[in-house]
Write a structure and sequence with these properties.
seven-stranded mixed β-sheet; 212 residues; Rossmann fold; alpha/beta; 33% strand; 11 strands; homodimer; two-stranded antiparallel sheet
Chain lengths: 212, 212
Amino acid sequence: MFKTLLPDFKDKKVHDLGCGLGWHCRYVSEQGAHSVIGVDISEKMIGKAKDMTDDPNITYLQSPIEDVNFTDQCFDVVISSLAFHYIESFDTVCQSVYRCLKTGGTFAFSVEHPIFSSRPEQDWIYDDDSNPLYWPIDYYNIESKRDTQFLESTVTKYHRTFSTYINQLIQAGFTVESFKETLPPDEIIGRPKMKDEVRRPMFLMILVTKNS
Amino acid sequence: MFKTLLPDFKDKKVHDLGCGLGWHCRYVSEQGAHSVIGVDISEKMIGKAKDMTDDPNITYLQSPIEDVNFTDQCFDVVISSLAFHYIESFDTVCQSVYRCLKTGGTFAFSVEHPIFSSRPEQDWIYDDDSNPLYWPIDYYNIESKRDTQFLESTVTKYHRTFSTYINQLIQAGFTVESFKETLPPDEIIGRPKMKDEVRRPMFLMILVTKNS
């Protein structure tokens, strides 16, 4: 997660969309949250998350993010880490999160950066010695499914532009508070594999609030 | 300029930062603005703008954008077209515009898109038949001067990330209303030279308001 952009969790009712193995649910509970509900589409992930959790304040729910239907104004904070680029309709997510957040509540999430997600290859262009020459952009304004390769599987992701992320949040009623494009922390930026990370952003982090 | 993102100019006091030959000043006045003040650093441009203008509602001022110091709350709308990527401190511009805008006022501007401005070469990578293969990104997180070539001159520009544009506007006090990444209009997108424009954005347009 992105500590510099995290809201205060103390005594808050928190909802984690796409919680995976529950790492962020447990982190949030350790920060003093009143309660946390984690949702993930994967039965396997949710099962493992439950096995890894010994905390009565955390509850897990197996469901697609798009189908979750909590009552209005029931959470103080909604978080999500690297899940929404697997979801076809970000618009629906925005409206649903806005509805279930209390007035004054915060929505903080990360996604794959639009610069990172535009080409399905998701890789550098290399020179003959395998040094990254530059990060290629293509099809940026064509917002659609991208079938990408991860290990030996095909993974379906959805590329969206920067303005789609921003405008759909604003149209749902949110106030934009802060953006962050990832850069590794100072203590590791000098390491060999990290030096190229300043050359293109991999993740985008957004924090918005529901003010009325 | 970007018509879909333009505010209403009727009876408004408008300020154009980096007005060049005054095209937008005249457009805004034709839309019924109360008055327009255009500012540009270039004495030559301002001279030509004046020669091209026969409209008592438009006034031109020769000055660097950074040095303009109008009194507080004197404009309803501030616009700027493709000028701020020539300015070193966007932060200063944000604070100065916020100050001179009336409460409820609008600030709408365009800049070179961060995807377009990251590499000083500002060009596609081509195949052997001169077809654009992809648009290369590099040094994205390194915000600094870029000496680019335009015709036979060296032009100094300043690359900024997406999050810097957004966060500095928010820190100055603005509310983010809308973003747009350029795509040519439907009627010309089919033309041969236009077909690659969907592959990477060239301009970024932002509209923010001063709400308090």
